[in-house]
Amino acid sequence: MSAFAGRRKRIAVIGGGFGGAYAAQTLSKKAPDDCEILVFDRNNFLLFYPLLIEAGVGQLEPRHVTVPIRKFLGKRANFVMAEIDRVDTKDHQIYYRTAGVGPLQSVHYDHLILAPGSVTKMPPIPGLKEFAFELKSLKDSIEFRDRGIRLLEVANTLKDKKEREALLRIVIVGSNFSGIELAGEYQEFLVTQAKNYRNIEPEEVQVVVVEYADRILPAIDPELAEFAREHLEKRGLKIHTKTTLTEVKIDSVTLTSGEVLPTRTTVWCAGINPSPLLQKIEGLPLNERGYIVCDKTTQVQGFQDLWAIGDSAFIPDAEGKPYAATAQNSSRQGPVAASNVVHALKGESLEEFKFSALGSLAAIGCRTAVARVFGIKVSGFLAWFLFRTIYLMKMPSWSRRFRIVIDWTLTLIFKQEPVQLGIHQDRTLASLAKNKLEEERELART
């Protein structure tokens, strides 16, 4: 049974990220009055991904990088916090569970926009799924900060320098925007906090970046990537290119060169896969990599009432290549898909999605960034200022913008403190430390 009755035309949107949220917001403004708009997502907020890492390392209050989804969508859209079980495209039914735990319900749709996002791509490397971390959510970001503080607390109790260095060595695989931003910002955070511990030297903190390509930040200009590399290496980060991992263990990783790096923390930032939900939608056309095959209007191939946008959709550009899986592209695909749904309802011709990226930005820590904006290359402090200014203005809420400015101002005046939020309690790490301390006590007795 469904909680939604009536036979008005219903336009459903699955996914409340950048693509789905902007699609639903556009539908709220443009859809005919006799249409109902229904939006599904597991979270009741829109997460502003560009500032996720800053929220994680404590430069921003975590709540300030989120926007309440209902406020963003407008009054016309009906939001349901739910996990989607499957979609029947023949009977036009969406099956879902409210908050992921309620009874299975279904609702009919007339048009459906798919924007389910993506998941981290985990290749079959031994130990990767068991021991590596990922960074896809606000919870991941906060947990990662808590883990860093916990690493410092445990390392502060150890006498063995090599064991401390192993605990404080962070291996980040993948040097795309999120990987490099995490490496730069997290290294700055750990080095700064290490000064609060009397038994730890800041130099014992080491962040290692592992990249399969021949350079970091392969999506931006080589000169900017080289600037970023020189800046990071000058601060002590280690960068390995043309290599990846062959094995991940609880206390080490092995590179393709055969080198073994002792570490307790490995973060995988190398690539994405389409949402697993796509496998639960019968008849959905997928390409060899599992992405939804669409035409240039975002309409799913072979369907008149199904549309797809964002990370899981293959929408060809003028050269037949897919658009990059970025918030910049998704937030512009959403309004096009929504407009085309309205065009289809009115029997009008559809418009094609055409967009050229306005630029790219990457913050690399210590008030430094690299950027390419409107074809102009910028690096250093000015790029960092542009990074913050541009993303501040893209934050879709004036109240959030104001709060973010306050947060940034406070971090310039007051030092951050090594305080856990209590979200992440790593029993594995605690167990390793306990065993090491017991070994040291036993040696002291003999």
- The main sheet orders its strands as 7-6-5-2-1-8-20
What count of helical segments does DSSP give?
12
Class inferred from helices and paired strands: alpha/beta
Strand content: 15-25%
Shape designation: globular
Cα Rg: 24 Å
Based on the coordinates given, report the CATH architecture of the largest domain: 3-Layer(bba) Sandwich
What's the CATH class of the largest domain, please? Alpha Beta
Number of domains: 2
- Give average pLDDT, whole number: 92
Structural key phrases:
446 residues, alpha/beta, FAD/NAD(P)-binding domain, seven-stranded mixed β-sheet, five-stranded parallel β-sheet, 24 strands, disordered C terminus
Topology at a glance:
Layout: E1 9-14, H1 18-30, E2 35-41, E3 45-47, H2 52-56, E4 66-68, H3 69-73, E5 77-88, E6 93-98, E7 104-108, E8 111-114, E9 118-120, H4 128-131, E10 132-133, H5 138-155, H6 161-167, E11 169-173, H7 177-194, E12 206-210, H8 222-234, E13 238-240, E14 245-248, E15 252-255, E16 260-262, E17 265-268, E18 272-274, E19 292-293, E20 306-308, E21 313-314, H9 327-346, E22 359-365, E23 368-373, E24 376-380, H10 381-394, H11 398-413, H12 427-445
Parallel strand pairs: 1-2, 1-8, 2-5, 8-20, 10-17, 11-12, 11-17, 12-13, 19-21
Antiparallel strand pairs: 3-4, 5-6, 6-7, 9-18, 14-15, 15-16, 22-23, 23-24
Can you characterise this structure?
- 34% of the residues lie in helices and 24% in strands.
- The strands form 7 sheets. Strands 7-6-5-2-1-8-20 form a 7-stranded mixed sheet. A 5-stranded parallel sheet has the order 10-17-11-12-13.
- Mean pLDDT is 92; it is low at 440-446.
- It has helices at residues 18-30, 52-56, 69-73, 128-131, 138-155, 161-167, 177-194, 222-234, 327-346, 381-394, 398-413, 427-445, and strands spanning 9-14, 35-41, 45-47, 66-68, 77-88, 93-98, 104-108, 111-114, 118-120, 132-133, 169-173, 206-210, 238-240, 245-248, 252-255, 260-262, 265-268, 272-274, 292-293, 306-308, 313-314, 359-365, 368-373, 376-380.
- The radius of gyration is 24 Å and the shape is globular.
- It folds into 2 domains: 9-120 and 272-346, 3-Layer(bba) Sandwich (FAD/NAD(P)-binding domain), CATH 3.50.50; 128-270 and 416-435, FAD/NAD(P)-binding domain (3-Layer(bba) Sandwich).
- Helix 1 packs parallel to helix 9 (327-346).
- The chain contains 12 helices and 24 strands.
- With 446 residues, the protein is an alpha/beta fold.
